[in-house]
Amino acid sequence: MRHVIAFSETLGLSWVSPFARLISGEDPRRQFRAILLEVGLPLAAIAVFLLFWSVAASSIRTSLGTLPGPAQTIEQAGAMWQEYRAEKAKEKLFYQAQIQRNAARLERNPSARTTAWTYNGKPTYLDQIKTSLVTVFAGFLVATLIAVPVGLVCGLSPTVMGALNPLIQVFKPVSPLAWLPIVTMVVSAVYLGEAAWMPKSFVISAFTVALCSLWPSLVNTALGVASIDKDFINVARVLRLPTSTRITRIYLPAALPLVFAGLRLSLGVGWMVLIAAEMLAQNPGLGKFVWDEFQNGSSVSLARIVVAVLTIGVIGFALDRVMVILQRLASFGRPVQA
Amino acid sequence: MSFLNMKGVCKGFGQGSTRVEVLRDINLEIQEGEFVAIVGYSGSGKSTLIQLLSGLSLPDQGTIELDGKRIEGPGPDRGVVFQNYSLLPWLTVLGNIELAVERVFPKYTASQRREHAMRYISMVNLAHASDRRPAELSGGMRQRVSVARALAMQPRILLLDEPLGALDALTRGKLQDEIESIMMAERRTAVLITNDVDEALRLADRVIPLHPGPGAVLGPHFPVPMARPRDRAELNDQPEYRRLSGEINQYLSDLRRGAQGGVAALDPALANLAPVHFKRRRGVANVQTVS
Ligand SMILES: Nc1ncnc2c1ncn2[C@@H]1O[C@H](COP(=O)(O)OP(=O)(O)O)[C@@H](O)[C@H]1O
Ligand SMILES: [Mg+2]
Question: Do B104 and B120 form a contact (C-beta atoms < 8 A)?
């Protein structure tokens, strides 16, 4: 039980711990109070929000009908789940038919050449979520591979920092919408032999994500390295550690909590930017889903977009939790802002 | 020719009109195997002195020689126990010590290195905590790790900067016992910085007060002849100990009175109150703690 409590606190899920403590028989009155505060209050807020939403939504009329309330949204989420199941069933049938077809052909003529087609149905909502996640991670990876080494050099050398600082400050606040046309043109010019597994729209979205999300990591890494505790440097000096050892065993671990704080911000920025980038670059992820529904303009489009909005929010929250865990692991017992 | 030799060492900080002389004309000779304690008020330049001995900073004037060789930078031949432990929080106790061992004994295999580190961890009674990180240790345990790290480097001289200053009185006494028995076994040259005359008299062969500055100089030397091991309880009954304790405390309180004269002119109320409260709180009659 102690592990459950510690683990949930690592996750930043502080509401789990009063339940765990209650089960293990700690002072029930205090735990009930904690549950009321940690669980009851947020649930009440959510209830108020849902109420407000359904009232407000029913009174707003758009050209696509009334704004969907919670009920329509849940209904649409159910419908989208059914669509997904139907699409999967179709896919299964396709492969079964193909296997039978090939088996029959081989029976007739054992030396016949059989072909295995891959199913080419339209991407399901889950496929789109997967595409978005892959794209954001690709962009985030590129951003990390650039930001951490550059941040490290900036942090180690005030000269480099002084030289790069104006550039960083100018590029940091640029919106993804401004980068996108440039990235699009550059990728179109440079990335000629388009591979099937890496379409242009994916590369454009990922690079836009990278360009927008690398700044927090870069700045935080530089700060983490530059603000290293003087005591740690004294240890390195007394031991006369060579530069490479100094970086890997002293500077990087010392900066790690701030590096991860930066990476966490970067992933958050990247996920926000991604939706905009996918809309414009037509990368088949959640952004394109929202855009297509908007263009579609059917009576259920708005409800489907609301489902997407909630999906984006929940995934963003989940990504943030993952980064919090990493940040805590990198902080070696020192406290972390959740 | 003595083992450690400081001649006319001066050190200050800042430039031009904002310059502060912290140490002025420090002269000190230490024999091999000798344990010297330097006592002084907080802010009098004790850490600055250790920084100079460790080579982490260089004197503005004068020379410091270790075994006839001039000190021109830090190195693992001088093991430093820093005032604030300075353990690396991302390494375990064992990891912290192995990092030092790795540098000092680069030819060791992994298992030799581990064995060497564990020997010193056991020496400070921390074998049970060897795979914990510093954040999971108490202040006393952290300081033990710091001592073990310095000892594991098998330095030619051990520099201890107020190693027990941040600890409570009980832990302090216990660690003093440990340090004394370790030093008797290891027989290393050592310089201990402390603000506790009692501690200095328990551990050192010679006690030297630092006459505070600006421009601090070393005061008279007090050789400590009591036989070792020096038991805390018995020590109080030895006339030799009582005499030394009295003399050094007298010297320091004369310094304090001198310093307070200056303060009193500015703020008499503060000057009257401070020492009384201070002694009561410590609750130890014949031990004067300078801080
Ligand atoms: N790097 C530094 N720059 C400027 N002043 C310093 C520096 N280090 C120490 N000092 C000053 O030197 C004096 C002595 O400091 P220190 O040696 O740390 O004293 P102690 O260890 O005896 O408490 C203090 O007044 C402190 O402000
Ligand atoms: Mg000090």
Answer: no
SS3 state at B11: strand
Outline where DSSP puts E strands in chain B.
4-13, 20-30, 35-39, 61-66, 69-70, 78-81, 157-161, 189-194, 206-211, 217-218, 222-223
DSSP conformation letters of B131-156: T--GGGS-HHHHHHHHHHHHHHT--S
Tokens of residue A255, six digits: 């900066």
The type of residue at A244 is: S
Pocket test for ligand 1, best of B20, B48, B49, B52 (most atoms within 8 A of CB): B48
Residue B33, in any domain of the structure? yes
Domain boundary among A102, A121, A140: A121
Q: Is this prediction's ipTM beyond 0.90? A: no
pTM across the whole model: 0.80
Tell me, yes or no, whether A338 lies in a domain: no
Kind and range of the H or E run holding A66: strand A65-66
Supply the range of the domain harboring residue A43. Answer: 2-59
Tell whether A256 is within 8 A of chain B (Cβ): yes
Largest CA distance in chain B: 64
Q: Is residue A64 part of a domain?
A: no
* Average pLDDT across chain A, whole number: 87
CATH code assigned at A233:
1.10.3720.10
B87 belongs to a structural domain: no
Token pair listed for A326: 């990493």
Residues A146-190 have pLDDT tens digits of 999 999 999 999 999 999 999 999 998 888 888 888 888 888 888
Atom of ligand 1 nearest to the CA of B50: 17
Domain count, chain B: 1
Ligand 1 atom nearest to B14, measured from its CA: 4
Residue whose token pair is 């388009």: A194
Angle at which helix B268-282 crosses helix B239-266, to 10 degrees, equals 150
For chain A, the C-alpha Rg in angstroms (whole number) is: 26
Diameter over CA atoms, chain A: 82
Q: Is A239 on the interface with B (CB under 8 A)?
A: yes
Query: What residues line ligand 1, using a CB cutoff of 6 Å?
Result: B 13, 22, 40, 42-48
Distance from CA of B246 to the nearest CA of A (A): 36
pLDDT tens per residue, range A234-247: 999 999 999 999 99
Per the domain annotation, does B100 fall within a domain?
A: no
Cβ separation of A239 and B100 shorter than 8 Å?
yes
Q: Contact A328/A100 with Cβ under 8 angstroms?
A: no
Instruction: Name residues with Cβ closer than 5 Å to ligand 2, which is an ion.
Output: B 47
Residues of chain A with pLDDT under 70: 10-12, 333-338
At what angle are helices A176-190 and A252-281 packed, to 10 degrees? Answer: 80
User: Considering only CA atoms, which residue is closest to atom 26 of ligand 1?
Assistant: B43
